[in-house]
Sequence to fold (179 residues):
Amino acid sequence: MITPVTHLDEFRSRTSRTSRRSRRLEHQESLRQGRAMHLIDIENLVGSTRPTTCEVEEVMTIYESLVPIGAMDHYVVAVNHTALLAVGIAFRGVRLLARSGPDGADRALVESAYDDRIDLRFERVIIGSGDGYFVNLADWLTEAGLHVTVVSRRGSLSRHLAAIVPDVVCLEPPALHAA
Fold:
């Protein structure tokens, strides 16, 4: 039901910029609540530039046992173009980015995070990589009030990244199968 406006002052107060801004901020806070974004450099987690579908599935099984996953969580996964098919088969219902070259997957994830303003839409961010390339992103997200977790293989964790984030989870992938 629409409430009629009886006075001009009442109309002005309902439509003022400050009230619209506060409603927008309340809406953004409700969007963030309980939601997490998983930014995954799958090559880094697997430890290979050409991960197989089986390797990706094994690592993600371990990842999901270590990190709380919510119903409203989103995933963005980045990989180089040569591994796109194998990784795409392993992941369903995620945003999959492909970029090759030095730090290609890292760059794609970081650019996506900034462009999509994940600081306004999520409460937590999980960075699935130990690369130092994520230091500035982790710092920005932490300063924006988000809880940032890094999931990394022990030998792949940047000291600078570990120093910035409050929460680091060590992922130990399964040993390679004997031939």
